[in-house]
Amino acid sequence: MLPFRLTGQPDSRMPLYLYGVGTQEEKGLHRPGGFPVYQLFLVRNGGGLFNISGKGTIIVGAGQLFALEPGIAHEYIPHKRTCGELGFIGIGGESAESVLRTTGIMCERPRTLTGFDLIWSQMTELWKGLDQGGMSMWQMSILIYQLILKIAQALDPIGSVSSEGDGNSGQLSVRTGNPARESSGSSSHVHGSSEAGLEGLSRAIVLMQAHYQDDLLLKHIAEAVGYSVQHLNRLFHQHYGVTGHQYMQRWRLQKGLEWLNEHPEASVKEAAENVGMEVNYFIRMFKREFGETPGKGMKLRNQLRLEQTLHPRQK
Questions:
Q1: Which residues pair with 20 in a beta bridge?
Q2: pLDDT tens per residue across span 288-304
């Protein structure tokens, strides 16, 4: 597994840039707000279903590529547990759409890749270069363009079969409250401040909100916004009274609570995986944050729903 890595703020002259890259063992993804840039998903072994807002259900299998536009609500549900991996590459820039569409990568269906292992290894090398910090954003831009061309060459002209349906992903309402409780309005708060240096803090918050499901450490966020971890923590403590790690953790817990409310039949383990946390740690931190375990809260909420169904209030 290659934990998700972000690049820094791209040069405005850069028409195509790498936003981030990583892999994960097959587990569910739930992105009700979509992703900020174009995404390329690579399925190594295993497979699963993408529920995409407005497009239905898409089946993806081993050795396939699936591309998705920015801002499209989606969730990924893997098949029964396998040893598969899901790779994802984020690509931004004014030329991203035209390059991806011209090369045939942006397609309504998954596409099979010939020489899939070679493409996967090149994605891995891209991750290593980003993780080691030995390449500039411009060098990364060249490499991602080369990778796009190699993917285009590897596309199976026959494509693959997808299954379409009406199963659109559910939308989560973002609640406000704790430092993550303040997060739905936090970006505007930071932008509204006249103090120097808050542009990086604002971008850090946006990245946390976009990538709470990923294995993303505070040091990687700090690198992406051009700050040291110490300086970023000082800014978080100054404006929110918590460290950057605490802010990100509370945001994950808040999203976990929202997910449980929207999926009353789901398990606590599924909720933990959905927000990128180990289940025992999720339970412990959830109780500390909300005063009860997620399992107890689910039981109480289900009981309340049942009582409301059996005894609806009279208007």
A1: 6, 90
A2: 888 888 877 666 665 55
Query: Residue with structure tokens 């490499």?
Result: 143
Give, in degrees to the nearest 5, the angle at Cα 22 between 58 and 30. 45
d(CA 127, CA 125): 5
Q: Which residue has the tokens 């604002």?
A: 202
| pLDDT at residue 158 tops 70 | no
pLDDT digits (tens, 9 = 90+) for 88-112: 999 999 999 999 999 999 988 899 9
3-state secondary structure of 17: strand
Distance in angstroms (rounded) separating the CA atoms of residues 185 and 179? 10
Question: Domains along the chain?
Answer: 5-154 (2.60.120.280), 183-302 (1.10.10.60)
Q: What are the phi and psi torsion angles at 31 (to 5°)?
A: -125, 85
**153 contacts: CB under 8 Å, gap ≥ 6:** none
Q: pTM (2 decimals)? A: 0.67
Beta-carbon contacts of residue 12 (< 8 Å; ≥ 6 apart): none
CA 19, 41, 136 angle in degrees (round to 5)? 25
Task: Report which of 301, 280, 289 is spatially closest to residue 254, judged by C-alpha positions.
Answer: 289
Instruction: Name the token pair of 121.
Output: 């290894």
d(CA 37, CA 20): 10
Interacting residues of 30 by C-beta distance below 8 A, sequence separation 6+? 75, 76, 169, 172, 213, 259, 274
CA gap 197, 232 in Å, rounded: 10
Specify the pLDDT at position 313: 58
How many residues are listed for the chain in this entry? 315
